[in-house]
Design a protein that fits this description.
The chain is built from 16 helices and eleven strands. Helix 4 packs across helix 6, helix 4 packs parallel to helix 11 and helix 8 runs antiparallel to helix 11. The chain has 431 residues and is an alpha+beta fold. It starts with a helix and ends in a 10-residue tail after the last helix. The chain has a three-stranded antiparallel beta sheet. A three-stranded antiparallel beta sheet has the order 4-3-8. The protein has a domain of 65 residues.
């Protein structure tokens, strides 16, 4: 069945179309259903915003290459222009990767819309689509489809699996991902409550609340000069205590009124409420929230300017971040792109693979990178020019030759090689 016919078949299934997702409803809901944690709300937490920026920046700077899996040689291919030069009219490659990774962390799913030439089938553009505009589903035969609401018109389009690159966060069913924001819902709710408390504290001038005391009777409804009950904006009646509280807060609450001289009459006395042990633990609780959020995203604390900043430990944390956090993400991007962007001939017969170079993430770790380069060169794995290429440096004359130490040789060849090294005397080194 041709792609056109498959599209016609899919479009004939209106019950699968998410008609509720339109530009109008998107604007009304902020991109999320009522009651859900929105990106705007979550990213007001510095730890969340920091983690998402760190991950998206890490992914954005990793270039792609295409490798022959049989020879491990890099292959020149037209897709490299899309992956590393210009994926679409509006975006640079790094911006595309950043958008995809932000979408994957925010909504659990990142989507690349693959635009092909209808005549030749050649891929012309890769366009990231916001996660809230896409709904994956399976038909009766188990084939995967994607219902995509057009970002401008809101018109639903049903696209086959081969037209969408789908990058998932944690997943239970393999079809859709679950974002760290959803998994960390309770942690984020606690962090938001703490931040609201913090804002309220400073909105009050950084001062604890207090009590106004008087021996006078302040009961009853407040009245104006004409003896009429005073009403609030909502129509409810105000008491004398309400009026007194409002007048006190108007004069003394807020940062602009901090440390303002209070003048009390009618026998009023102001007694501030002292800070409690819970207030003293507030900073500690915020640190716990940051650690929890960082744990959900897999981001080491030092990248958030939290915890101990010892160079040695941070160096090891950087390596751990690449190995444990970035590598699984990068591997998924490479696997999905290999399967969706390469043809069957390129994939199965020629053995081509799309790979992502992760060395850019370790460029700041000079000590570890230098030690690794030295090890690879001394063991004949890399030539000088191989190392220079990884550092984006030009080749040097004679740099393609690989070398290997003779300090370690097979025992059966030791006598012969030792004799050659010592000018024909096998025992020269033992005298």
């Amino acid at each position: 069945m041709s792609m056109t016919n498959r599209l016609r078949l899919a479009v004939s299934r209106p019950q699968q179309v998410r008609n509720d997702v339109t530009v109008k409803t998107l604007a009304a809901s902020g991109g999320l259903a009522v009651g859900e944690l929105t990106e705007t709300t979550a990213r007001k937490l510095s730890a969340v915003d920091g983690c998402m920026e760190i991950l998206s920046n890490s992914i954005s700077k990793l270039p792609n290459y295409i490798m022959d899996s049989r020879t491990r040689e890099h292959v020149d291919h037209y897709l490299l222009r899309l992956l590393n030069v210009r994926p679409n009219e509006a975006m640079t490659p790094s911006i595309r990767r950043k958008v995809l990774e932000n979408s994957r962390n925010e909504g659990g799913n990142g989507y690349d819309w693959i635009i092909r030439d209808l005549r030749t089938g050649i891929i012309r553009e890769l366009i990231p689509v916001p996660w809230w505009l896409v709904q994956p589903w399976r038909d009766e035969a188990g084939r995967v489809w994607y219902t995509v609401s057009h970002p401008v018109t809101g018109t639903p389009m049903v696209l086959p699996n081969e037209d969408i690159c789908h990058y998932k966060a944690t997943t239970r069913d393999g079809l859709t991902g679950i974002s760290p924001l959803r998994r960390a819902r309770e942690v984020l709710a606690a962090a938001q409550a703490a931040q609201a408390y913090d804002l309220a504290f400073y909105a009050n001038g950084g001062q604890p609340s207090g009590v106004l005391e008087t021996d006078s009777d302040l009961g009853g409804w407040a009245e104006d000069v004409n003896g009429k009950h005073i009403q609030a904006a909502d129509g409810s009646y105000l008491t004398r205590k309400d009026i007194l509280r409002h007048e006190w807060e108007k004069v003394h609450a807020g940062p602009s009124n901090s440390h303002r001289l209070a003048i009390l009459d009618l026998g009023l006395k102001y007694t501030p409420i002292a800070a409690t042990n819970k207030d003293a633990q507030f900073v500690e609780n915020k640190e716990v929230s940051i650690r929890d959020i960082a744990r959900y995203f897999g981001v080491p604390l030092y990248k958030l300017q939290e915890g101990k900043q010892a160079y040695g430990s941070n160096e090891q944390n950087a390596i751990e971040y690449v190995v444990s956090t970035l590598h699984p993400i990068v591997n998924q991007y490479a696997e999905e792109q290999t399967w969706k962007l390469l043809t069957d001939t390129e994939l199965l017969r020629r053995g081509l693979e799309i790979r992502i170079n992760m060395m850019a993430e370790l460029k700041g770790d000079t000590a570890s990178r230098g030690a690794w380069y030295t090890n690879q060169r001394n063991n004949g794995v890399f030539s000088v020019n191989d190392i220079r290429a990884l550092e984006d440096l030009p080749d040097v004359e004679g740099g393609d030759e690989r070398r290997e130490s003779l300090n370690y040789v097979p025992l059966k060849d030791w006598a012969r090689l030792s004799e050659q090294r010592n000018g024909g005397n096998a025992n020269a080194g033992n005298t």
